[in-house]
């Protein structure tokens, strides 16, 4: 079974929860945990209408929580300049259609995620055989069908820029999904990693509940290309981030983050890849079409 890399609790990079339900990470970075997943708010407090960006869009039923946190942080009726997606799994696009329509906001994503966001393709089926706990065992129940925001969808430019986020660039970090991206700000070493790696054992309901800090590979039951996932972690480790916000678990920072991420990168095949699994033996990839199913 895949293993985790424990991290000292002192490596946490977030402040205590504020009145708006968010945790500040820097002056213009905050996140809110929504049951099993995090959403990230990029923008200074009080930024106002179109003065901020939402990263990912939670699980179904969380629209009110995201909207209330945004209004408390940025101002009454403050809409984002855009919604940027790390990828399109159900727990990252749960209320995307509703929020994009309500806010009349463009949605930015990688070209290889387009089929999952324009209604044309479903993700490969989850793999409960990877083990690790309850979250993995019940993964066949997780939705894989696409959402459709085609009228608002924008494809991230090939030069690595993120148009609604000056000073940030996107890095293609496939493996968990074909078009997964992470977001990097070189000026202060801030990384929004999505599910390229996570800081909790997402396969385990107990770990998800307790949120003990650790470095872990991408959630195993939905990762479809393990060699690509390994390359992605190594690319992120090479950045030597000062802090990282992931899709699952608490933000981490400082030397402990970098040591843990280096250890994961160096020994990824042993500590992150499950001993068995559908996609261990046969990755699902965009290149041959196996990563896309009929919806």
**Low-confidence residue ranges:** 205-209
* Main structural class: alpha/beta
The CATH class name reads: Alpha Beta
Strand content: 15-25%
Please give the alpha-carbon distance between the first and last residues. Answer: 32 Å
Provide the helix percentage.
10-25%
Mean pLDDT: 92
Number of helices: 9
What is the CATH H-level superfamily?
Ribonuclease Z/Hydroxyacylglutathione hydrolase-like
CATH architecture: 4-Layer Sandwich
Please report the total strand number as a whole number: 14
Question: Which value, in Å, is the CA radius of gyration?
Answer: 17 Å
Please state how the strands of the largest beta sheet are arranged side by side: 2-3-4-5-6-7-8
Shape assignment: globular
**How many structural domains?**
1
Region (Disordered): 1-20
GO molecular function, one term: hydrolase activity
EC number: 3.-.-.-
Pfam families: Lactamase_B
